[in-house]
Design brief:
alpha/beta, 2 domains, 4-stranded antiparallel β-sheet, Arc Repressor Mutant, subunit A, 5-stranded parallel β-sheet
């Protein structure tokens, strides 16, 4: 059973979301504000947090960052909001959101997306924890990266991108695939991948060039 926390200021929508997700077999808690949502998330450690960007007491981007402090379990973050600008979507994904749907929406779509997030979590936790590629070591469970024995601090999105490239080392990952798998389905936002790669290369220092650009296609991690 997947534990879902719904953080939504609209009481009617909050109740409808909770009812639909409960009917789908999930264990659901709900909160009407960002602060209440943070308190519930810390107490119950849900698998998925579904929330609006425009909460009465807290910006959704701030909520993303608050829910992902170092050393705590990181739930999947699902944004459900009326904010339609591309800049809002990019900001949410950069802050760590795993999926993003704009209102109005269908309850069936929300339920299916929650199911997809649940499958993604289940798949990632069933794999061997360590991935080693040359001087690079990635610990999936601890979400920790070391390069030549030295720890490297990464954001959630940087970690997810590096892990994906390491798991598929030597094979090109297109921008579209990376967007869909790591950021969710957002159109015309390939530059968010490019920006994340640029930061990642810088943090990896002399090993950064191992992430190679395949012009007009995407990126790959060199295994040479």
């Amino acid at each position: 059973m997947v534990r879902v926390l719904v953080v939504e200021g609209d009481g009617t929508l909050r109740a409808d979301l909770a009812a639909s997700l409960t009917d789908a077999g999930h264990e659901v808690e709900s909160a009407s504000s960002g602060l209440a949502g943070v308190a519930l998330a810390r107490a119950s450690e849900p698998d998925i947090v579904l929330f609006d960007l425009n909460l009465p007491d807290m910006n959704g981007i701030e909520l993303c960052q608050t829910l992902r402090p170092p050393g705590r379990k990181r739930p999947s973050l699902f944004v459900l909001t009326s904010a339609r600008e591309e800049s809002d979507r990019i900001a949410a994904f950069e802050a760590g959101a795993d999926d993003y749907v704009t209102k109005p929406h269908s309850m069936r779509e929300v339920v299916l997306r929650v199911r997809a997030l649940s499958r993604r979590r289940s798949t990632s936790t069933s794999r061997t924890d360590l991935v080693t590629r040359g001087a690079l070591t990635i610990d999936r469970a601890a979400r920790r990266v070391e390069v030549a024995g030295t720890s490297v601090e990464l954001t959630r999105r940087e970690f997810d991108l590096l892990l994906r490239l390491a798991e598929c080392a030597g094979r090109v990952q297109t921008r579209d695939i990376l967007l869909t798998e790591l950021w969710g389905d957002i159109a015309d936002s390939g530059r968010v991948v490019d920006t994340t790669v640029k930061r990642l290369r810088k943090k990896l220092g002399p090993h950064g060039p191992a992430i190679r650009t395949v012009r007009g296609v995407g990126y790959k991690l060199s295994v040479e």
